[in-house]
Design a protein that fits this description.
about 230 residues; five-stranded mixed beta sheet; 8 strands; Lambda Exonuclease, Chain A; alpha/beta; single chain; 7 helices; about 20% strand
Length: about 230
Amino acid sequence: MQKLDRTKYISGKNLGELALKKFCPRCFWLKRRVADVPGGFPGIFSTIDSLTKKSTKRSFDSRSMTPGWLEVSDLKEVLSIPKIKVDMSEYGGWILTGAVDDAFLRNDGTVHIVDYKTARYTKTQDELRPEYNVQLNAYAIALTKMGFGEVSKLSLIYCEPNENLDSDDDFKLSFSTHVEEVDIEPNIVPELLLKARNILDGDIPDPVAGCIGICSWVEKVISSGEVTEIK
């Protein structure tokens, strides 16, 4: 499958990185103009997210209600949302992409978007909150542009692994949920799209002090002697 041009397409999640306190413009520039740092996201989390969505849909199909673990109310049905590819060219020439975890039609006809996080709500997760806020607000803008109507609620749903086993004989990993509401802030998305374009269209930025992202990886490559500089 042909990769999208990363100078023109940006996902809601990647856009959210610009809102983090430790955001490094140089890392962003390198990822978009050169290549991403080697590595990958463990597949098990994608599997868990997929099962979470299937559990929700099955509950609506069979009982017309959310499963017991989903601590949200006032939901009428699960919406079928295609992958996002929305023209945001008025804000730096970008095409906004992404994949919504779940979106629900509420009783008043508006939309509730949720994003599942397989993680405990910890200090680390709290530090990532600005990224998640942008991601969900990007989805809200996209769904409105795609004709799904007004988005009235955004939620992060943390699926936290339980530490206690139910029995000594079987290994059954169970989860509890923690819901965090996200403010609807549509203005942050256009602002960050323009910021992203300004960074990308300029010369390579200086690294942020103490960066542990792709900048540190580049420095290791340079120190190996295989590459002498990044121009």
